Amino acid sequence: MKLANFSLKITHQLCPVNNPKISKEVLDFLKKLAKNNNREWFLENKDIFKKHEEHVKEFYSSIQLRLEAHDDIEKMKMFRIYRDVRFSKDKTPYKSHFAASFSRLGAHLRGGYYLRIKPGETFAATGFWGPNKDDLFRIRKELEMDASEFREIINKKSFKDIWGSLEGEEVKTAPKNFDKEHDNIDLIKKKQFIFVRNFSDREVLSDSFIDEIDKSFKIIRPYFDLMSDILTTNLDGESILE
């Protein structure tokens, strides 16, 4: 564990911050932005946007502090409001939501956390959004060999009550050189391995929202531990890390 992360954890334990929360004004602003998604309106309201952006950034920073009490986080990234419209049919210049991701520390810790705040469409997500070619092949070979521990973790009631079922894009039948009749083909054909939890606006505005986010992220840990073990070893269980 890095000294900086250790200090953050100790500071959080000794001087816990009051429960931060998302204000109704944040959601109201995002609703207005969705209806007035143009540069003229945004420039007229940029000072208001900056105030809400800072408020939400503080909320995300509080989530990071809580994460660092039970995980090692390398960095938080809050995404910019500006959309990249170069290759999109939708030319509206701004996102009508706030979002941030939290990356785990080091090559031995895999997986990541994400939270989007949008009126009527807020969700937390966690898992593996875009495994590279080698990682995806390694996961599939592990599931081909034995998926019992994987299924045991994701089917545990306390896990499913929060995260529901495994989500993510998948191939139609089977990846190349994998048997489409394999008992674990439902897992093997996945290209992403993610879980999503949706929140209503009422939940987002509640005092307990940050507690629910932290509880959700905390319960994903056995899944991350298993996937990290898979992705840092070969099929014989030997470490591939230098």
TrEMBL record:
<protein>
    <recommendedName>
        <fullName>DUF2461 domain-containing protein</fullName>
    </recommendedName>
</protein>
<dbReference type="InterPro" id="IPR015996">
    <property type="entry name" value="UCP028451"/>
</dbReference>
<dbReference type="Pfam" id="PF09365">
    <property type="entry name" value="DUF2461"/>
</dbReference>
<dbReference type="InterPro" id="IPR012808">
    <property type="entry name" value="CHP02453"/>
</dbReference>
